[in-house]
Design goal:
alpha+beta, five-stranded antiparallel β-sheet, two-stranded antiparallel ribbon, 26% helix
């Protein structure tokens, strides 16, 4: 299989020399780098029913499964939620070998803090509307 080089373009209000926390999160996901991901979470991070360490364990298991399928990176595809976080923007991360997909809505709350939500009803521009669940 030929190697795919990932390039990520971010839309920001102004040109920034330093990436935002959300941009760093996307980069960590694409590299399946659980340590970089962990470093981005504040100690009291809470995502629904998961604290920082529960979420890290969950994401690490996803990364391990993706790597076991031969994936060396994840390809980010921007889109938006059609379900509970209606119209919130996020990314579908696709395995570069398996094509397996995981989707998260990433919301910056304030400087250095974000919310991460799994999304199962996600629309990507140019693709057919997904079936409601």
């Amino acid at each position: 299989m030929k190697s795919i080089t990932t390039s990520i373009a971010f839309i920001t209000k102004e040109e920034k020399a330093v990436p935002t926390e959300s941009e760093k999160l996307v980069t960590a996901f694409c590299a399946m780098d659980i340590r970089a991901f962990e470093d981005l979470l504040i100690e009291d991070f809470n995502c629904g029913d998961a604290n920082k360490y529960d979420l890290i364990a969950r994401i690490e298991r996803q990364f391990e499964k993706l790597k076991a399928q031969g994936n060396t990176e994840l390809i980010p595809v921007a889109g938006w939620c059609l379900g509970c976080k209606e119209n919130a923007c996020g990314y579908r991360f696709e395995g570069n070998v398996s094509g397996h997909k995981i989707t998260y809505i990433i919301t910056e709350m304030e400087e250095g803090k974000f919310n991460l939500t799994n999304c199962s009803y996600f629309q990507v521009p140019g693709e057919p509307m997904p079936e409601p669940f």
